[in-house]
Amino acid sequence: MNINEIKSELGEGLFWYAQQGILYWLDINNSMLYSFKEEVVHSYNLIEKASAILDVDCQDIYLASKNGIFCFMIKSNKTLQVSQVPLKYSSNQYRTNDGAILSKNLYMYGIMNNNPSRGDGALVVSKNGKDRVVYEGIAIPNTFIRIPHTNSLLISDSFEQKTIRFNFNNAWDKVLDKSIWLDLSSTNKTPDGGCISSSGRVFISIWDGFEVLELDLHGSVVDTFKLPVPRPTNCVLNSSEDSLFVTSAFEGLSKFTRKKYPLSGSVLTVNLNE
Questions:
Q1: Residues 6+ apart with CB under 8 A from 88
Q2: Is the CB of residue 237 less than 8 Å from the CB of residue 244?
Q3: Residue 251: is its pLDDT beyond 70?
């Protein structure tokens, strides 16, 4: 199976595992995990709906799922629950949405309502298997880019079409302050998943924008990379940082639009040197 043959309804959760040169990603809606190496794609059925790949340790994949964080062990095809989502958000009304690893056994992920409304979501920190809510008032959490050498995360509220800089305390369990970093609310575009280079280049996939934006650390647009799909969802850099892998979705697109943009749902590659 070739990477171009995979069409994800809601592709997300990109993770580049540099140690083995493997690209991982998810189809959230169909509870699928994919891996790509040397022109070969492998697929795995997950027992839970996962929204983000938080970390990879050899063949152990740590994911943010509907019920919290779990580890999918590729070699044995078994699943190990690492933590439980906070009780308030444990019903079928909610699911996780995007997240990031902060350090060993320390993660942050987002919670959203399956029928999102303003502020009806949360940010959760998971430390050594214990999960607690650190912020409420976000609807669709996305992006989760850590600004180097700080306790700051760029987290988008895709419902509000804004990316917010959250500043946390040293324990990552309290929001000290927050500020608007990118505001697309006057457009039809929505910030989705993103990544950051070793030199501080920020890349954010723009849902309904046909593009990935490159921004500086102050939130100013530096460059725009146009794509042949309306709904890019996430991006990750390769080891040399000269290319981006970009997931996309066909969720919510009409038959006409899918036919017009047949690569919707594919994983695309963007050459940053062109």
A1: 122, 133
A2: yes
A3: yes
